[in-house]
Amino acid sequence: MNQPHFHLPSNAIIGRERMADGATIRTLLLPYDRPVANLLLLTGRADFHEKWADAIGHLHRAGFAIASFDWRGQGGSSRLTQSGAGHIDSFETWLSDLDRLSGWALQSLPGPRWLALGHSMGGHLLTRWAGDPARGLLPFRAELDGLVLAAPFYGLGGPMAMRTAALRVAPLQVRRGRAAEFAWGQRPYGAFQQAPARQLLLTGSRAHFEDEGRWVAAHPELATGGVSWGWIDAFAHSQRQLEALPLEQLDLPVLMMLAAREKLVDNKAALKVSARMPHSRTHIVKAAAHELLREAEPQRDEALAQIRRFAKEVTK
User: Fold this and answer.
1) pTM reported for the whole predicted model
2) Which domain holds residue 77?
3) CATH at 119
4) Where does the record place the Serine aminopeptidase S33 domain (predicted)?
């Protein structure tokens, strides 16, 4: 078996935090002496710490102290299905976890300067969390200096007819008791996730793409397959909640980075969200696919440089 090429920094601290309902979330801390800023890193659907090992190392070397976690239902956190499907009852569950874990991050890393970086699904959840006036008084929200949204997920990519059909069928399948079952065309982690066609959706870096499969081969418990009908229905509901938020009143500076070769999520939807946020600016990374921080060079360097420049601007 080929061994993973990228590994977490040796001084990364892996732990677990227990949520109110008993679920446990696998966490990561990576301190830095006198950081540019502390960074709460929110990764995407089906991601896990090890998949992001190289990106985490680069962010750390760029001067960031990092707090991160595997979302409930994936990676090393409590699972929600035995099939390995990417499933959730409601995105509100993840937002409640973020309420708790943002407080954990604030208590775990010293210093007043804080950014939050959300990739893909993590970007969707971060936008909802930061843009919700009801969360304005939470300790971490009060300390937050800015948001970085990397290829944020505000709409499904792919052919319009397929997207429309999936969104229409999902609530029917949920009502039939099939919420936790794989949606059409979805399956457990396997050959599809390691196929060259999937790499084209994610990254131009073959090394980063293949490393995910190596980690799953070494630790099968980290794998998450395709999405469930419940996940699709929960996303549709969350998107409506996002549209209803007063994002025009968001007082935080925002850096939104989009991939020029994006096929997995909807860049047009992202541009509409960016236009609603008064302190948002958009940067398009040329020749990049969805996973900007797991891209080949020079695309990944460009994304990292944007993040570091933004951090210095907003944490003066």
Assistant:
1) 0.97
2) 13-314
3) 3.40.50.1820
4) 34-296
